[in-house]
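My current task is to audit a protein record that another person submitted. Alongside the sequence sits a line of tokens, each denoting a local backbone shape. Please read both lines and tell me whether the tokens look consistent with the sequence. Do not assume that whoever made the record got everything right. Thanks in advance; the entry in question is below.
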Amino acid sequence: MIRGGDDALARARSHAADAAPVTPDRVLAPIPRPGTIFGCGVNYRSHGDEEPGFVFPDEPQIDFIKTPNAVIGPDAPIVIPPHDRVIVRPDGFKVDYEVEFGVVIGHRCWNVRRDDALDHVFGYTVFNDVGSRGVQFPKRPGMGRQADLGKNFDTFMPMGPVIVTPDEIPDLSRARIRAWVNGELRQDALLAEQLFPVPVLIEWISSIITLEPGDCITTGTPAGCGTFRVPPVFLQPGDVVAVAEETIGTLTNPVVAG
């Protein structure tokens, strides 16, 4: 569908106009097995300000890559990893949430300039960039920082509830992302607050790595994730996390014990 471009979208619109409404039993992630998901580090000043002594970057920070095994859709559970014989964290895995605006690449792009970057976008979605701070930022000697592993436990990348095409969000700066835990608003920001807007991120990544249809970019999270609250508050079994952007909709996932 994504590789088919405008012709595939036109066929889909025509089919949808003629088809009877469908009530699904279960809604999956819009792309259950996406390509590479590029994870942006600090991209909101409010998020950097949460960490004492943080030095803001002069260039986009693509700090990690998420893998397809982590992707789940609406209402699917986020699973808190159990303690086991391999990865042991006596202080817990410290699982955190992060609402992120997601970009889905539609056309193969390499060395794309920012002025042309949005021409290569298929659409936009919402991600919940779940991560284990206990693996990502361990406090004990001998435990190295492992951002990729900490971000890639199974179920750690809720995606959805849909992908919208770029015409539905013509002004990205006005898009607003929010996150709630158990109904409490924890994160709230406009994309206008991003240090490096979407076209800059596409330009930066594609200057190094060829982006393919179905690859995704998560564009950073604003202030309010659990690790920087005082005291820190991490996800627990029984919690419910919702992340949203007004046009895309709300993505809700319960939290369960592994």
The longest strand covers residues 249-257. The mean pLDDT is 93.
